[in-house]
Protein: Lipoprotein
Organism: Pseudomonas guariconensis
Amino acid sequence: MTLRNLIAGGLLACAPLAHAIDLNDDFSLEAKAGVFSDYRTRGISQTQNDPALQGSLTLAHASGLYAGVWSSNVDFGFGSSTRQELDYYAGYFWQINDDVTLDTSYIKYVYPRQGNFNYGEYHTELRAWGVLLGGNYSENFNGDQSMLYSYVGYTTLLPFDTDLLVRYGRNDYKDPSWFANDGTSRDDYHEWEVKLTRTMLSLDWSVSYIDTDLSENECASYLGFKDVCSATVVAAVSKTF
């Protein structure tokens, strides 16, 4: 399939609900909405480099169990019928201590009017003293393709209450999917992101530098477009309710 390379939506990890509304002693609810200059997933644009409006709703239990839904507009080109991505997720967040957490979840990706794009993915992330180690695995991506996404990252607080995230990831497919002009192919690619986030005026502002090691020809061979895998800067503003 060359229409898109949607992988794991905006759900890199499901962090604890920092601004949640307490429904009772056991349950809390969090809603988020944001505007992004581009919707990039693991380095690749899901909106043809156009802006995206995204939102989520998460219900969490005091035990660490949670479930929710996340949505964004998408554009895969080539007359694709779907213009929306809906991600349904459920998982368990374990606060081991003040510095160490473990998050495990299952995510179901749904594309209205384009059911052949739908697939599921398992996610696990360990955070320890600012270091991130995580992975996502799907056994039915693009129908019968299996895929493993693994990443390492680091988060820290900078001056002026600015958060820094640095992440490096690898997407590994069962079958060769990326082809160069010289006839060579590969079944994986690497991507990275450097992100700054700061809260001002009760809004979360962020800017990210995102890139992959895919050439324009490799990008076009799988996705049909040369410019959706290239380096870019993504700006965003979001609100947690």
Q: What stands out?
A: The chain is about 5% helix and 60% strand. The two ends are 38 Å apart (CA to CA).
